[in-house]
Amino acid sequence: MNDSDLFFQRLDQLLTRIGDMLPIRPQHADPATHMALRWRKHGDTGFLQAIGHPHTITLDELLNIEEQKLALDRNTLQFVSGFPANNVLLTGARGTGKSSLIKALLNRYADRGLRMIEVDKLGLTDLPDIVEFVGQRPERFILYCDDLSFEADEPGYKALKVALDGSIFTASDNVLIYATSNRRHLIPEFMHENLATRHEDGEIHPGEATEEKISLSERFGLWLSFYPFDQEQYLEIVQHWLSQQGISRLSGPARQEALRWALARGSRNGRVARQFARDWVGQQKLVRTEPARSGKE
Fold it and tell me: Would you tell me which of 24, 195, 238, 279 could form a disulfide with 273, CB atoms 3.0–4.6 Å apart?
């Protein structure tokens, strides 16, 4: 073996060792076999990670948001049918079913090719890469952005504006964006910005700062608003979740405890109702089993 061959042999061994030391780049999960995925960052690149245990909630389990269910169901059915549909912004009171509604529609239409990719705020700058990867696939993709809230100068804020409308880049026909937020316009609104509002001939003209903040939310074609539940609506949801655990009737003690539970948390919503039901059912089962355990001890 001459010097040249020896040099290249050692170089090949060195490159192999360096390759073994480098982190393995994760592979994209296959949307054909996974209905729920998450966009994850790996260094400067991203990849689709399968969600092993997607939420199994159904539309029937979501109470007192019938108008919102009908509107989002119709929009999603148009989408999976290959017809025009809108990006959607769901805003309003916390715990009223915004995120659960989106997940329920995934469960309803997964067998018709609907897939969901969860994208957090930091991942929004990768929206062009995500769309490029899934754009030629046969499935229909909802990019799900939960609990969005921005400052106006954040990169994700500008990336989302561009993805919705305003760039030569545009989402393909098999991609929609569904976002939830407790804020109607996704970013903080301050009192001093209202001082720039002008009144001319009976018309209101918002200031430039307000216009900028409205410009993101108005790029969603469909807005759905969610409102706090009253006491009876809250108790109806409590009863539903208790029945899921085998308790068919909302007893007097359970009703009083459910109201105390909501009062302690300062909110009557679906999330609080479900949390109470789990606590109440767990307590009842523990009371029945604890004497048996004590006898064994």
Answer: 238
